[in-house]
Specification:
The chain is of the alpha/beta class and 567 residues long. The chain folds into 3 domains: 3-180, Rossmann fold, CATH 3.40.50.970; 196-360, Rossmann fold (3-Layer(aba) Sandwich), CATH 3.40.50; 369-559, Thiamin diphosphate (ThDP)-binding fold, Pyr/PP domains (Rossmann fold). The protein is 38% helix and 17% strand. The strands form 5 sheets. It has a 6-stranded parallel β-sheet, sandwiched between helices. It has a 6-stranded parallel β-sheet with strand order 13-12-11-14-15-16, sandwiched between helices. It has a 6-stranded parallel β-sheet with strand order 18-17-19-20-22-21. Helix 1 (10-20) packs across helix 2 (35-43) and helix 9 (196-207) packs across helix 14. The longest helix is centred in the middle third of the chain and has 20 residues, at 349-368. It is globular and about 70 Å long. The termini are far apart.
Length: 567
């Protein structure tokens, strides 16, 4: 059926628009403002509705779903006012991660004045700064067109969230609609080629290099198009590093993969970027988490070749010698073909051999380090065991906070995309809910979410969602009884004057059991593997409460407190 032409409600038109866009899963929390839409969803069997307990965490689920599936993640806040405001943190998080989330919020009737309406709020102004675009639909006939525009814009470079406010009277109105269901309004593929002259110039510049490195980011990761990067690296014998938060862009097992760079990366990858004479940046902004926008983390003298699909990001943070406005994978293949055609051979054998030696020594030291088998459990000890026990198809979600930041480059990622973090938004309370969304998108993957006790306490109510819908993830709570990052700053820069840093929580394993999930308690490093295996095997949502050394604190943003350092 190509076209539907009959008199239906605005709510039905909105759901038919979702169907047109090939939406298969919708996260949401019902509310009176959007009852017409939820009633239409009840009758639309091709779309599964997953009822969440909070609009914020529901948006994190949609965000995780979008990143894992390379499709839109859809969240509905059924209630205007407080339902909509609860979306804000999740939408802002998706915005910082360039995640194609479509947020649909109920809104007060267009017949009401905002200041007099129950739960009235200027939602248009609220969402506009944190989305690519926000619409408030005031004519029910425009629902299909605006929905199409929203799905299309959200997936265009650079991807990001959009918001559609749907007033309750608009959803209730009936109209005749033309909704073409033959194909969706968007494409999640972009094969824009790079300028041929720039490709040739890049090949020549690489040929003159003595110590070059490739930096790979999200432009490769989310499309899982790493094979062209590997072919390029292999023909050039060039090491690869990944942008922070995108350590899964290249499978861990490849010998030229040095891991994540920068302040949150490992020393081998970071040294490569600090010493390279040519940096080939593929699908990355060279953003904050990777560089802190500082030449302390990237060689100031290096010539940068940047491949980026969003034109304004070319050379935005660091000057680029050659700017290639193109799809990352497409331009990488072009560059590979040019280097092969020109029979370019790089004289970087010593550089690459030194890297291989350092990488081997780093990985051996990491795995042989004696971290004890009893309490107190050190974060490195936990991560070491996870490297041993987690299946290679695992997807890992991380929170912000000191413990998860220590995990950024401590785990191994084999099956892109398989690492999901808050990225530059630095949000605590993200990981568990994001993991639920990843699992819905990739049900065959083992999904493991790492959180601190504070972050998990924020979002624990979504255990109800996980149990009700059979979303079987494993959540590892690294329980150090504190807001670890802030306590570290109080320890290092404020004379150990602790205020609000120490927290108490219930036994999360027991709470999980009350929700109907599986719960495990780990007090010794030697108990970790058994608990993780049992959790995965249980085929239920699981929580592993791990007692982590409360003294294992680390101040990541020491630069922020340089004014307090005595000289």
């Amino acid at each position: 059926m190509k076209t539907k032409r009959k008199r239906i409600s605005g709510g039905q038109a909105a759901v038919q628009s979702l169907k047109k866009e090939r939406v298969r899963n919708v996260f949401g929390l019902i509310g009176s403002a959007t009852m017409e839409m939820f009633d239409a969803l009840y009758h639309e069997k091709s779309i599964k509705f997953i009822g969440v307990r909070d609009e914020r965490t529901g948006t994190h689920m949609a965000d995780g779903y979008a990143r894992a599936s390379n499709k839109h993640g859809v969240i509905i806040a059924g209630q205007n006012g407080p339902g909509a405001t609860n979306l804000v943190t999740g939408v802002a998080q998706a915005n910082a991660a360039f995640s194609p989330v479509v947020a649909i919020a109920g809104s007060y009737s267009t017949k009401d004045k905002m200041e007099d309406a129950f739960q009235g709020l200027d939602q248009q102004s609220l969402f506009s700064p944190i989305t690519k675009k926000t619409w408030t639909i005031k004519n029910s006939k425009k629902i299909p067109n605006i929905m199409s525009d929203a799905f299309n814009l959200s997936m265009k470079p650079r991807r990001g969230p959009v918001c559609i406010n749907l007033p309750r009277n608009i959803l209730a109105e009936s109209n005749s609609y033309n909704i073409n269901t033959k194909k969706p309004s968007f494409t999640n593929e972009n094969k824009q080629k790079g300028n041929k002259d720039n490709i040739k110039k890049a090949a020549k510049l690489i040929e003159a290099s003595k110590c070059s490195v490739i930096i790979v980011g999200a432009g490769i990761k989310y499309n899982s198009k790493y094979k062209d990067v590997l072919k390029l690296a292999e023909i050039c014998n060039m090491p690869i590093v990944t942008a922070a938060g995108h350590g899964d862009a290249i499978p861990f097992g490849h010998i030229l993969n040095a891991g994540q760079m920068g302040p949150r990366g490992n020393p081998v990858a970071s040294r490569l970027v600090k010493n390279a004479d040519i940096i080939l940046a593929i699908g990355t902004r060279l953003g904050f988490n990777s560089t802190f926008y500082s030449y302390e983390n990237i060689n100031k003298k290096a010539k940068i070749i940047q491949i980026e699909l969003e034109k304004k990001m070319l050379g935005k943070y660091f000057p680029a010698t050659i700017k290639i406005h193109a799809d990352a994978a497409t331009a990488t293949k072009q560059l590979y073909d040019q280097i092969k055609k020109d029979k370019i051979k790089l004289n970087i054998k010593n550089w690459t051999n030194l890297y291989l030696k350092e990488r081997n020594e780093y990985l051996q030291k990491r795995d042989k380090e004696n971290l004890g088998s009893n309490f107190p459990i050190q974060p490195k000890g936990l991560f070491k065991q996870l490297r041993r026990v987690l299946p290679k198809n695992s997807a890992i979600t991380l929170d912000a906070g000191t413990l998860c930041l220590q995990a950024t480059d401590a785990l191994d990622y084999y099956d892109p995309p398989s690492l999901f973090t808050p990225l530059d938004f630095g949000l605590v309370g993200f990981s568990f809910a994001c993991g639920l969304g990843v699992k819905v998108a990739k049900p065959k993957k083992t999904v493991v979410s790492l959180m601190g006790d504070g972050g998990f306490g924020m979002t624990i109510s979504e255990l109800s969602t996980a149990v009700e819908y059979g979303i079987n993830t494993t959540t590892i709570v690294m329980n150090n009884q504190s807001w670890g990052a802030e306590k570290a700053y109080q320890k290092d820069f404020f004379g150990k004057r602790y205020l609000g840093a120490d927290i108490t929580s219930p036994s999360f394993d027991k709470v999980a059991e009350l929700y109907g999930a599986k719960g495990f308690k780990v007090k010794k490093v030697s108990e970790i593997n058994e608990a993780v295996r049992a959790s995965i095997k249980s085929n239920k949502p699981s929580v592993i409460d791990v007692d982590v050394d409360p003294k294992a604190l680390y101040s990541f943003r020491r630069d922020s407190f340089a004014h307090r350092v005595k000289k």
